[in-house]
Amino acid sequence: MNIVVLCGGVGGARFLRGLRGAIGSGDSITAIVNVGDDMWLTGVRIAPDLDSIMYTLAGVNDEERGWGRVGESERVSAELLAYGVGWPWFTLGDLDLGTHLARTHFLRAGVPLSKATELLGARWELGVRLIPATDDEVETYVVTDEGTMHFQEWWTKHRAALPARKFEYTDAATATPAPGVLEAIRDADLVFLAPSNPVVSIGPILAIPGIRGALAAAPAPVVGVSPIIAGAVVRGMADACLTAIGVATSAAAVALHYGARSDDGQLDTRNSTSLWPSSVGQSGLQGLLDGWLVDETDAATVPLLEAADIRSAAVPLWMRDPESSAQVARDALALAVRR
Amino acid sequence: MNIVVLCGGVGGARFLRGLRGAIGSGDSITAIVNVGDDMWLTGVRIAPDLDSIMYTLAGVNDEERGWGRVGESERVSAELLAYGVGWPWFTLGDLDLGTHLARTHFLRAGVPLSKATELLGARWELGVRLIPATDDEVETYVVTDEGTMHFQEWWTKHRAALPARKFEYTDAATATPAPGVLEAIRDADLVFLAPSNPVVSIGPILAIPGIRGALAAAPAPVVGVSPIIAGAVVRGMADACLTAIGVATSAAAVALHYGARSDDGQLDTRNSTSLWPSSVGQSGLQGLLDGWLVDETDAATVPLLEAADIRSAAVPLWMRDPESSAQVARDALALAVRR
Which residues contact B320 (CB under 8 A, 6 or more apart)? Predict the structure, then answer.
């Protein structure tokens, strides 16, 4: 079975690790990874979501802290700060920097990000094929009353406390999916939306022209796992993002934001560098979902979604460790094949 | 008194530190530093000589190892190697990398190397103004029977064991001295050639068009300190470089290679991307020196040099620590003002 997962960083990483533990030996997983968080920082290219996923699948992530490499240090970063260079609010670990420098080395040599990701991943036994959504530099910017800034600045420096008015994906309109993305969706037996931030993790992937259309045309069922449990984000500050696009922080609202896939596969495939107006998001015109897995505490949501043509089930969604993550994946697989 | 020092890495750093300890409060030191060892390495700009000098003057150099930062680690470098990226034979310390990244950040923002050097140096109390010989990328390449390679590769990977046929300074012919270089030489009361490698430390500086002419026209005396003691290099493998240009490894041969400055200030100011032919080197057509300080074990050299119109003295030249370095500087100052 060919499984495709659209995903962002930590939530995506945990779901992928669980899925890897849940599938059979003949199955394959292809992760289409958000690059909206990527940025140039003091001359090196940072790709937080690709790295979070790679580290987690490689087993070298910091479980306790929730991100980055285990046993990390920040000696280089301290030097940069002493020279007055860099962004003091951005943590740049030494081991992590090794990945960034290797990636940057490839990129500057003209190697596209998708190939660089493959070269970096070859070091480990990932068990998952990682493809960035695009080889182009599509970065998420946040429009606030204090100016427009890179998502990382808004998220890390301002802790998402500045009200976001709008999210923009730079140059998304002219970007193309990375090699393998559309083929993977076309050939998939199953497509998952990982429990990742709908606005800044899944949103930038869907903003790449061609990907929404490929999902609409895919013969495989498309099933999402809710990143919202009992009206709260599992981690991070997704609520601040959802609020900006007029979507409530609830499992049901996010599902309706993605919308039920219509039977004829027709949907609005307009591409825009700004996120869909909230009216569109709320009315579910994206038409992406066949199914939506919610937490057991959101069981009351299931009949509502079923009525909206989105098959649904309520199960424990907290991914505390590899085993609970594998169980979430098994439950998502079960929902996906349910007819 | 305005003192200008032409210098390379470790020998230059120790001499400068000694000189800083030997001068009065009203004196100033400007170091014109070799950039021939500089290179791009996995996307960051390395400047070994500028850094060796900065670290030594800042008191954060590794005295025991003789180069780099004290308390250094190589975590990032180990990551790069694990990804199969980088040059395994080049040691890239974490603290050192902080400097490289900060420099690269400035350079990529369009800041010239001379300004970047000033910005980096502002972190410390150097007591010496550091100027790279040029803001252009002039790098030393070594022609061998196994191909032409960057000086760092020849020096560090091959330990200078591949016979060098020729040294080339890339794009030197079209390079210009960094802002302040010619002015510093013009306004100097004293110019020193530090005990640095004549071929790959002082040579690349002299290859920048305009610098040799400025030295010839300088009202100040030009005095060199021998990097050769008792027929052997003090450190490094300068003998392999000297052999390639047909100069013997002796204090006298190096002095004659630089040559006595003629009274009329006229000299051959041809600029070439390759080092002067050995015949020119040996015949002293460069006409650079008013004085040359040799080690006490080379005392027999003194009358020879005096006969060749190069005033000379023999003193202990081993710079073992700051105090012995300061004494070398005091002896060099005494020779410079001797009439």
Answer: none
List residues of chain B with CB under 8 Å from any CB of chain A: 42-44, 73, 75-80, 82-86, 94-95, 97-99, 101-102, 104-106, 108, 119-120, 123
Residue of A60, A75, A124 for testing the chain B interface, max B β-carbons within 10 Å: A75
* Predicted complex ipTM exceeds 0.90: no
Does this model's pTM top 0.90? My answer is no
CATH for B2-337? 3.40.50.10680
State the average pLDDT for chain B: 91
Q: Do A123 and B42 touch (CB under 8 A)?
A: no
Summarised one tens digit per residue, pLDDT across range B177-220 is 999 999 999 999 999 999 999 999 999 999 999 999 999 999 99
Chain-chain contact of A43 with B43 (C-beta, under 8 angstroms)? yes
Q: Do A75 and B83 touch (CB under 8 A)?
A: no
CB-CB contact of B123 with A82 (8 Å):
yes
Residues A120 and B85: their CA atoms lie apart, in Å, by 10
Contacts 24+ apart (CB under 8 A), A210-215: A210/A176, A210/A177, A210/A182, A211/A32, A211/A133, A211/A177, A211/A181, A211/A182, A211/A185, A212/A267, A212/A269, A212/A271, A212/A286, A212/A288, A213/A269, A214/A177, A214/A181, A214/A182, A214/A185, A214/A186, A215/A185, A215/A191, A215/A288
**Closest C-alpha among B56, B183, B189 to residue B127:** B56
- With an 8 Å Cβ cutoff, are B82 and A106 in contact? no
Q: How far apart are CA A325 and CA A321, in angstroms?
A: 6
CA distance A96 to chain B (A): 8
Cβ separation of B85 and A99 shorter than 8 Å?
no
A324: distance to nearest CA of chain B, Å?
31
Domain segments of chain B as ranges: 2-337
Rounded distance, CA A71 to CA B158, Å? 34
Nearest to A97 among B76, B85, B105 (CB): B76
Q: Which residue has the tokens 């240009």?
A: B245
- A294 - beta bridge partners? A314
